[in-house]
Structure formats: structure tokens, C-alpha cells
């Protein structure tokens, strides 16, 4: 009998009242588990989280909450083999891809445990120094950050059921804000199991961590003015969230990470087959194939000088030739499936749309699937496209506007020795999460960085001297900011302790300097 996963709400495990939605193995096509939230008393669930979970968390200090994050990371680490198995079955990922999600999530959680341990044993944070309000220093202003007295609703995407959970939940819980997680239905199994293991371990106060699997209907309706929402997903869903009365009328704070047509740039001074060239080729290949290209940070556009178009195309294609695709249970397979049939069809339709303005440089058809039925599995080989020339890059508006969420990227040549042209093309992405820049001249690299920061959340600069040290274009590190302007959603996550700002309220306290001197972070 297929298991119906339970929800954890109002301090107890409870099932939905419907038949549930089936989660399917994207390689074998078999049913795995079901999820359902029909009939849950959402109002009670949200009130319980605010009143019970929130109150208990706020009575703890930052280091005390940090210790809980550390304990949770140890529980997850002890159960990692199970999470790998669930990821293989539900997401169709090979081990290395699972590590990006599972190990990445645990690492992020443990990082925030360490960051929180460095904070003072307090219930609020100081923001900046005292500010004079006049000539007499006796009357001054001090800004304070205190945890919001609401709940954090975390609505996550399907591609990172582990990391997407903990990169949001860790700073929220460290801040003292209870969390209600709504994982993407297609891959909710891993998220639910990780939350269950942590809850069953009794680490956090009851109500501090909740999970609702299945439909998102009614969740936004429960939000009150001091609640917050953090969302990762499509721009269409983001627009619905932004237009909800909870946001427009109650001013519920929202953080959005949406679509992003990320890029990689090879500087005009680079030459064929030099070290920077090879670093670009290697990274593009990795970004196209890790998690079958299902990463919000994956490279979608590859900007190279017009004269290097053919050389880059041949070099990337040669690497893609070596990628084996199919059933991740086979140790020889390097790339598994996209998450489900809906995404598989979306990749195919997106490819067809882009191909009307591009040429195919490497076709998915070159890859024979290993131990996977092409008629039923959601496996597809990588596809590399190109816009043929710098003139074609200007005309190919679809390349700059469309993100195909799968193993697809497009080489976009720019006019030789014309960095301004490359930057103009990059900005046509209308805001992205990340761009990476490849070159050997540190002066040139430093010069281009400020030209990209206005339209990107993160700039990944790669020179030969850090070829073995850099963390990768698409890897989101908890110490660095994650988010981006414009079409990327305009949100900000992570960035070390900066992530706590979203879950705190800032207030200016104007008072006698003597009073302000007593507002130490160790105060109760």
C-alpha cells in the first residue's frame, strides 16, 4: 500500500482528508508516496506556530537557538543515506547531484549554527552605532533589531527539497521566528522526511517547525501583518503572491527568488584553449548537467567573442559527448532525469521555442539512455544552442527572455574586442541571480565587476590562480548573498548574518544616552 505522508501542524502529525497526490519516480515511472493537505485547519496551525512556537523561540537567546540548529544538523547527518535514497527515487538524481542538495542543506544549517554561536546571549540585536540627534550628546538614537512576532511561511521549489528548506529555515529559526514549510509537491518526500526526523528528535520547541505537503490553497489567507513569506519558484506564482491581500493590504513582508537567465562571460582578451577558456568550458558543462540543469543558478547564456564562437562550441560539445544519461542506479550514469513528465515536456517545448532563433551545436539525441525507457522516463540529454554571430545575438530576443529549466544553454557571441556589447547583451536578461566572468588579467576582471553588480545578485569571478579554489558558478554558499534584481525576483537570502534581517523588525530608539547605554545585547 502506498504511504500517505503526514503533515505536521498545530503541534501534531496529521494526514489530509483526501486521496492525495502521487509522487512518481521520474526514471521508472512508478508511484512512490502520496501527499495531501485537504481538510487541515490552517487557521489553527498558523495560530499555534505564532503563539506557541514563536513565544518559545523568542524566550531563547541567539546562541541557544544556534545550538538547536547544530543539533538538527547532526540528526540529518546521521540519516543522510536515507535522504540519498529518497532523492534518487523522487528526483532521479545521481549521487553527486544529490550531494549538492542534501549535503548542501546540512552544511548551510551547520553554518548558521556556527554564526549564531558567535552572537551575544541576547534577545535582540543592535543595528549600527549611536547617532547624534543634535549638538548635545545626551540625546541620541540607536537602531534595534527584534524578531518579528509572526510566522515565516516558506514556499519552496521542486529542485532543491533539502537545501531550499534549510537555507530559509536556518536563519528564520536562528532569528526566533517559527517556520511553516510548504515544499513543492513533486519532491515533497525528502523535505517531509528531514523535517520529521528533526521534529521526532525533539530539538525545537513544539510549533517552531511545521510542514504542510500538498496543495498551497489557503496558506496565504492565514497571514497576518507581522508574518513573512519567502518564496522560490516561477515569476507567474511570484506575481500571484505579490498581489495577495495579505501583501497588498496587510503589508506582509515578502522575499522572492524567481526566474533567472544567468550568464557566463569570457573576456575579449582571452584566446582559444588558454586556461581561462578551458575553465569556462569546464564550468559550462558542469552547470548544464548537474541536476540535469534544474538549478535556478545554472548558466543559460554563454557570452564569448565572435572569433571564439566555433572554438567554444566545439570544446563544450566535446565535453558533453562524454556525459552519460539515464538511470542513476547505474554507476556509469553521470546525469539522471528531470523531475517529472511536466518538466520534461516543458524542456522540450522551451527548446523548440529557442531553436527558432538559434542553431543546435550539440543535440540531446546524441545520448542513448542507459537503463531508462525513452517512452516513459523523464531523461533527456544536454542540448547546446548558439546564436551564430554577434548580429544574431542582438536579434535573438528569446535567448535573453526565456529560461529552459533543464540541461540547455546557448552560446551568445558578442563583437570582438567590444566588452560594452557583451554587457548590453547580458543586461537583456533583466536581472539575474549570478553571472560568472572568466579571464586572466586581474585588472580587467576588477574593472568589469562594477558593471555587473547592478543587475546581478552575485558575481563569480574566475581567474587561473583560483582554478582549484573557487566554489563554482552555481553553488550557493551561505556566506554569500543569494538573490537578484529584476526578473530574478528582487529578493535577498543568505549572505551570512545578513539573512537574519528579513526575519527581524528594525526600530529606532531615541532616548537619553544613559538609557541607550543600558540597551546592551545581553539585556532581557
Description:
By secondary structure, this protein is an alpha/beta fold. The chain folds into two domains: 45-258 and 492-518, Aldehyde Dehydrogenase, Chain A, domain 1, CATH 3.40.605.10; 262-477, Aldehyde Dehydrogenase, Chain A, domain 2 (3-Layer(aba) Sandwich), CATH 3.40.309. Helix content is 35%, strand content 22%. The chain is built from 16 helices and 22 strands. The protein has helices at 42-58, 62-78, 80-91, 95-117, 163-175, 188-200, 235-242, 245-248, 275-289, 309-320, 341-355, 390-395, 397-401, 419-427, 442-448, 513-518, and strands spanning 3-5, 7-9, 12-14, 21-24, 31-35, 125-132, 139-147, 152-155, 179-182, 209-211, 228-232, 253-257, 262-266, 299-305, 359-362, 383-386, 408-414, 432-438, 456-462, 481-484, 491-494, 504-512. Helix 2 runs antiparallel to helix 4.
Would you kindly provide a brief summary of this structure?
The protein has 524 residues and is an alpha/beta fold. Helices cover 35% and strands 22% of the residues. The strands form six sheets. A seven-stranded mixed β-sheet has the order 15-16-17-14-13-18-19, sandwiched between helices. It has a five-stranded parallel β-sheet with strand order 10-9-8-11-12, sandwiched between helices. Strands 1-5-4 form a three-stranded mixed β-sheet.
Mean pLDDT, rounded to whole units?
96
Provide the CATH superfamily of the largest domain: Aldehyde Dehydrogenase, Chain A, domain 1
CA-CA gap between termini: 52 Å
**Poorly predicted ranges:** none
Which radius of gyration do the C-alpha atoms yield? 24 Å
Briefly, what CATH class of the largest domain?
A: Alpha Beta
Q: What name does CATH use for the topology of the largest domain? A: Aldehyde Dehydrogenase, Chain A, domain 1
Shape field: globular
Widest β-sheet, arrangement of strands: 15-16-17-14-13-18-19
Number of domain units? 2
CATH architecture of the largest domain: 3-Layer(aba) Sandwich
Number of helices: 16
Describe the main β-sheet briefly: 7 strands, mixed
DSSP E strands, number: 22
Percentage of residues in helical conformation? 25-40%
Strand content: 15-25%
Structural class: alpha/beta
Amino acid at each position: 500500500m502506498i504511504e500517505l505522508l503526514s503533515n505536521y501542524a498545530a503541534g501534531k502529525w496529521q494526514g489530509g482528508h483526501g486521496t492525495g497526490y502521487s509522487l512518481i519516480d521520474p526514471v521508472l515511472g512508478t508511484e512512490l508516496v502520496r501527499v495531501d493537505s485537504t481538510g487541515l485547519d490552517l487557521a489553527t496551525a498558523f495560530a499555534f506556530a505564532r503563539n506557541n512556537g514563536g513565544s518559545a523561540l523568542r524566550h531563547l537567546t541567539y546562541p541557544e537557538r544556534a545550538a538547536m540548529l547544530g543539533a538538527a544538523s547532526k540528526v540529518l547527518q546521521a540519516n543522510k543515506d536515507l535522504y540519498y535514497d529518497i532523492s534518487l527515487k523522487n528526483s532521479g538524481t545521481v549521487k553527486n547531484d544529490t550531494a549538492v542538495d542534501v549535503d548542501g542543506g546540512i552544511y548551510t544549517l551547520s553554518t548558521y549554527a556556527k554564526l549564531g554561536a558567535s552572537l551575544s546571549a541576547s534577545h535582540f540585536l543592535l543595528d549600527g552605532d549611536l547617532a547624534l540627534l543634535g549638538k548635545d550628546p545626551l540625546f541620541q538614537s540607536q537602531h534595534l533589531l527584534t524578531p518579528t512576532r509572526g510566522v515565516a511561511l516558506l514556499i519552496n521549489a521542486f529542485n532543491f527539497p533539502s537545501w531550499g528548506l534549510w537555507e530559509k529555515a536556518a536563519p528564520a529559526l536562528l532569528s526566533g521566528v517559527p517556520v511553516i514549510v510548504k515544499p513543492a509537491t513533486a519532491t515533497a518526500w525528502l523535505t517531509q522526511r528531514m523535517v520529521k526526523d528533526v521534529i521526532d528528535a525533539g530539538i525545537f520547541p513544539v510549533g517552531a517547525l511545521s510542514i504542510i505537503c500538498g496543495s498551497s490553497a489557503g496558506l496565504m489567507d492565514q497571514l497576518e501583518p507581522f508574518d513573512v513569506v519567502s518564496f522560490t519558484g516561477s515569476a507567474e506564482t511570484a506575481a500571484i503572491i505579490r498581489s495577495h491581500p495579505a501583501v497588498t493590504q496587510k503589508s506582509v513582508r515578502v522575499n522572492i527568488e524567481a526566474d533567472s537567465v544567468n550568464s557566463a562571460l569570457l573576456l575579449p582578451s582571452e584566446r582559444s584553449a588558454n586556461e581561462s577558456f578551458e575553465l569556462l568550458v569546464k564550468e559550462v558543462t558542469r552547470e548544464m548537467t548537474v541536476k540535469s540543469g534544474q538549478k535556478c543558478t545554472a548558466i543559460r547564456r554563454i557570452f564569448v567573442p565572435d572569433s571564439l564562437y566555433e572554438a567554444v562550441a566545439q570544446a563544450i560539445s566535446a565535453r558533453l559527448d562524454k556525459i552519460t544519461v539515464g538511470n542513476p542506479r547505474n554507476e556509469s550514469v553521470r546525469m539522471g532525469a528531470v523531475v517529472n513528465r511536466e518538466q520534461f515536456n516543458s524542456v522540450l517545448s522551451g527548446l523548440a521555442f529557442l531553436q527558432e532563433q538559434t542553431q543546435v551545436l550539440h543535440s540531446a539525441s546524441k545520448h542513448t539512455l542507459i537503463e531508462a525507457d525513452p517512452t516513459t522516463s523523464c531523461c533527456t540529454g544536454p542540448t547546446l544552442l548558439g546564436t551564430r554571430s554577434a548580429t544574431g545575438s542582438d536579434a535573438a530576443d528569446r535567448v535573453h527572455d526565456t529560461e529552459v529549466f533543464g540541461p540547455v544553454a546557448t552560446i551568445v557571441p558578442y563583437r570582438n574586442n567590444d566588452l560594452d556589447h557583451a554587457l548590453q547583451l547580458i543586461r537583456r536578461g533583466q536581472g539575474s541571480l549570478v553571472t560568472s566572468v572568466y579571464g586572466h588579467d586581474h585588472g580587467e576582471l576588477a574593472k568589469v565587476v562594477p558593471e555587473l553588480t547592478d543587475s546581478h545578485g552575485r558575481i563569480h569571478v574566475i581567474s587561473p590562480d583560483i582554478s582549484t579554489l573557487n566554489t563554482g558558478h552555481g553553488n550557493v554558499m551561505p556566506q554569500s548573498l543569494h538573490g537578484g534584481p529584476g526578473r530574478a525576483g528582487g529578493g535577498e537570502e543568505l549572505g551570512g548574518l545578513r539573512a537574519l534581517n528579513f526575519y527581524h523588525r528594525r526600530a529606532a530608539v531615541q532616548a537619553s544616552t544613559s538609557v541607550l547605554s543600558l540597551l546592551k545585547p545581553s539585556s532581557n
